[in-house]
């Protein structure tokens, strides 16, 4: 790959690990050795020590160690870092060589083997002459370990071997144990190796550090960098990353202290890049990402301006790109290991910047690498060794550190060679790869717009790389984002690129779409551009080859012409359907039904508005609207007649009207526009393009425009009507219409007398009058409670047409479809509907009159169904309120009713009806009580109650002695039959039953009542007879005394004590002689029952009359004069 | 001084965008457009915590290699974006703030114009003048 010159060397990017060589293992043929090797290299997780192992043959030649320099006085360094150095210490020079040797303690040939082992050690030693590498010996033993008692023996044997090989360490390795044991043993071994390796690297660091004192600042500047780098690298091998970071940082500042000139600029930048990479890597490893970012920024700021040779400026861009890319990769890697990035600081930015520099590189390369120069020979890039000795040097002048190039001619050819090489670099490929990396990152960090922007760049890059299909795919994908965000400038730029792609691919369909969009109102192109594009579009419609887009590569244009010519020749696929709803095309379309609903007897009218935004008039041949019911489509087509095609003038709105008659089956249905199609071009000869809008037109931008228009007209009240031209933006779309039934020409009138009274048969009289011109047939009435109200209302409302009797609960709440026959023009029809409302409250009643009629619309005969609805809300109220009370015969309120003693029941009927009520009759239905008097007829018969009037009734009742002992008893019901006064005499009476309250019973042991006249007269004797009844089953002893009174003289027993037998009665007769006139209190009768203490005078006294009216002693007048008074 | 000044509607489409004419105008459009990602994120982050006590100035949105992009959001979610050349290190945060304040005042004046339709692009000489005063004077460059 051509970009590989800029790739970081793998030995730089890897994690340095101590290198340990294993010798004496035959991993191919020896199974035991194989198992050992596998245990070393398999399963190297993070918990194992970081060592890289390598199996080498026993006689492996390690790199020769050069003789140590004793003085640096005359030494002039040729470069900063040798290209082989890192690899040498990672993979070639081991920190420790381990010799594996099979030797059991009881080996019969112990002596021989021992010396063989020593020889092998010696071979390794010689090969490592001059290095600090240690050698270790591991004995592989097949026998199980010695019994514990023989430790001493084994120890001595150990030392014996040790002495003979004079190696630094010796380990026992037993293969007899299980695999698990092997791994355990291996881990122990490698920990020991690791310690040795660390010591080795420590001494290496010391060795490099010791050079420092020989160096001087003038000639050995390069060595300062080299040594710091080496120390840092060894520290890394030693796994001392903190110190490594420190030394790398020193190295970094030293590299920038170097004298930089054009010839060594590349070398300095290369090394700075390497060291920067290491620093950033370690910072991320230490989980200090901010340090890494800061270092990288510093690095970029320092190096940005170090362009070097102007003729090779693309190299700098390539290098910068690589810096950003590798930092992005490091960042990304750190994120994978758990670092969290944020929206404004994520690897995407670095990839993006890398792509940006790659783009710079491409432009620079295009400027600098002129075609035509022939590749110089001999190849200036060749070196003797086939590669470079030092990082970042020019192959034709390796090792030269002078300011001027040693050979100007060679320098020139070298540069030309590099330029020619650069020409072949697939820049676009590199850029696209970086961009797609960046896209992936920005997607992750919620940057949709950045993502779109990068995708545009990718698309453009594909366009430059002549991969038009991919370019179109990407551009098309992001276009809609910019369209919905309404960034017209950006959209136009993108569509213009897409148009070029479509042209170069000769993709007719895409070409037309993009032309249409670029001609549209969202395009920010200049007028002359639009003119050109429209001309091209017209050419394409005529099946001609369009003019090439400007800014296209001339070679590609020629190829495209050929493609277009092929397309032209290709007959057949010359019909295109282009859905423009999601674009912003050059023809705008809005359609509307004139009204959101049409009566079935009206023609349905719809309008299609078209407007062209392009600079030239557009002509078209056909406009058609498709509707949800396809049968209507035939009425909504307009086609050009003959050669005359219809045309749209730029900026002018044109309106096309369509009208059709709906089918009667569609009443109640919605008709929707499903699409509008405009045919451009003609099917004869040229191409024929159907521009289609879904629904009722509009495009990606129209919704927002309509919103703005509505805002502005609302605010300023712009006089839209005053202008001749229709205001396009405020034209609203009406994509659907309802077909509703014909307007009925009948009148439905209701007459009634609200409110309704509870339980009454409320009469609503309905008058239907036809104003139709023809006969209304099949008139049907649906009357009753309007559906959709409280469910309980349905239970408590009953509707009937029968007024002869009170309807029962089986009557429905809604009477459906009562046939009323036909209705001639002008005829009137009356019906009464009776409603019984069992509960109070408001109700909505519906009266629905439906009929059908023949009519004609635009010459077509249709049968229309019409209906007229009337609703009325009727309140139901209680007609009257009934209150009931129990009183004693003295009209005193009773709490309890005494058994077998008469009392009174008083009822009050208070009318709350606004209308007069006629009470037909009333009656009592008694349960336990009996009437005391014979009731012949209701006292309320035929009474008319006005509002707020009250009707009362009184009944004398008596409660017979009860068999059971319950103290409360039900009284019974009070029945009232009534009707409205205004209702006809034959209308049914309504029975209202009022439950009478329960009474509490008490039994009295003694009942006393008096017979006395209704009045007395002064100085005329009046006799009073007291009846005392014993109501108990016992003989009662009664004490009676009459208290003296000022108003009366009296004769009779003043004080008496008597006995009354069970069930019998005693009479006491007194003659009272009134002395004063007026209401006089009768002499008090004190009665007490010595045996029954609960009953005293007071309880008994309530039965007795208290007072009597005494008339004055009049003059003796004859009866006639009294009668006259 | 700014190299690009933009006013973005609540619905994220440009109401006004002007950049230094010497450079690629399209690039600035893209820069402003992509900066809306950060603006949106910042607004939504603030909206969750304190609804009314939001600071209008959003600060540095994101640094690119060549430019610094600053943002400001009015209470009606109209965004102002100012792009400044990265090399211009003399510009302090306070100055940017005052630029935004000036811009906001001028924008308010535009909105107060009874003949201006909110939602339309800004075509006001006064506003142009304010913006020009804040832009890098191109005449000195050429």
UniProtKB/TrEMBL annotation, chain A:
UniProt xrefs under Pfam families: Foie-gras_1, Gryzun-like
Domain of life: Eukaryota
Domain Trafficking protein particle complex subunit 11 C-terminal: 1035-1087
Gene Ontology biological process: Golgi organization; lipid homeostasis; liver development; protein N-linked glycosylation; protein secretion; regulation of response to endoplasmic reticulum stress; retina development in camera-type eye; vesicle-mediated transport
Keywords of this entry: ER-Golgi transport, Golgi apparatus, Transport
Domain Trafficking protein particle complex subunit: 264-520
Function noted in UniProt: Involved in endoplasmic reticulum to Golgi apparatus trafficking at a very early stage.
Listed name of the protein: Trafficking protein particle complex subunit 11
Gene name per UniProt: trappc11
TrEMBL record, chain B:
Entry GO terms, CC: perinuclear region of cytoplasm
Keyword Cell membrane tagged: no
Signal peptide range: none
Matching Gene3D superfamilies: 3.30.450.70
Keywords of this entry: ER-Golgi transport, Transport
InterPro entries from the UniProt entry: Longin-like_dom_sf, Sedlin, TRAPPC2L
Pfam annotation, one family: Sedlin_N
SUPFAM superfamilies: SNARE-like
Cellular location(s): Cytoplasm, Perinuclear region
Protein's UniProt keywords contain Transport: yes
GO biological process: endoplasmic reticulum to Golgi vesicle-mediated transport
Family the entry assigns: Belongs to the TRAPP small subunits family. Sedlin subfamily.
Protein name per the record: Trafficking protein particle complex subunit 2-like protein
Organism of provenance: Sander lucioperca
